[in-house]
């Protein structure tokens, strides 16, 4: 009986690993075949940035935005009632393109980031809206031209980017591109009707202003902790599936300054990414335990497979070979993080930047997520 059970687990693990490789290779081919922007128009652009306690990050991001050679753009930053010098940093920039909004924090029923972005859009006048996290940084003075060019090649009016990711906790941060490239078959997003087969990367995404104004996604999903996943699914239901573009040459994101900051940041999302409810979480967590932990114990070939998957996604996002060497540690820490996130959500102890985080997914979200780690 034990032998039969082991054989059954081995067969299931083999299918799962085969599927992971299939999704990864499909996504890499898809990104490389993405249309090359030709001579494109330059519609007016509104860059919307939420900022809570982002003083240091804004000192890095805003100069790279203000150096852009894009002909007509505005930068709108909403200070979400920061406790640090965020407002002072915003006031220190004397630039006509920059508009700073001093928010009073989210009203009841709203998530802080969602409300801050909604406030930005209330002041936006561009034909395209670009949403950036405050820890992003643009590379080159033509980055906005390039991002708009990539957006204009998409038919749906919604694009999201795979940026170059950086952070002090590479052992955890490197799981994000792994998730984006193995957890969702992006070429199938516009080819299926299933809303769950969709997402956005909230670090960097763009939408036609006319579409945004028609659907008002931030107002529609005002209490979504995973607003990027929820918005991606919402827009797909409305007939505008997000299109993924590789923007690593133009956007870098410095995610966290240390290991424990990364742990706390990922902890607020991990449980929700695995379903946001006990039963979906148990099912998804079982999948990861089998794929990341049990499979390598069944056969060394599964360990080789995991190293191959991690090496491929690490190279695709510019992580060092040293980060790949620690791949088993990344996966074990990922499992511990998912469990820690679940326990914190079950006991209503999740906080982020001094605020409590809702411990259940919003009712408008689907009950399960195809992504694997928080972004």
Give a written overview of the molecule.
49% of the residues lie in helices and 14% in strands. The protein is of the alpha/beta class and 375 residues long. It has a 7-stranded mixed sheet, with helices on both faces. Helix 1 (2-32) packs across helix 12 and helix 1 (2-32) runs parallel beside helix 13 (300-316). The longest helix is centred in the N-terminal third of the chain and has 31 residues, at 2-32. The termini are far apart.
Layout: helices, strands, pairs:
Layout lengths: L1 H31 L12 E7 L3 H12 L6 E7 L6 H6 L6 E5 L9 H11 L5 E5 L3 E3 L4 H10 L5 E5 L1 E3 L3 H4 L1 H8 L21 E5 H7 L1 H4 L6 H11 L5 E4 L4 E4 L4 H15 L4 H21 L1 H17 L4 H5 L1 H20 L4 E2 L2 E2 L19
Parallel strand pairs: 1-2, 1-4, 2-3, 6-9, 7-10
Antiparallel strand pairs: 4-8, 5-10, 6-8, 11-12
Question: What's a concise summary of this model?
Answer:
49% of the residues lie in helices and 14% in strands. It is an alpha/beta fold and 375 residues long. The N and C termini lie far apart (41 Å).
Principal-axis shape equals globular
The level of helicity is: 40-55%
Q: Quick one: biggest sheet?
A: 7 strands, mixed
Beta content comes to 5-15%
SS content category: alpha/beta
Radius of gyration based on Cα positions: 20 Å
Q: Could you list the spans in which at least 5 consecutive residues all have pLDDT below 50?
A: 362-375
Strands, count: 12
* Adjacency order of strands in the biggest sheet: 3-2-1-4-8-6-9
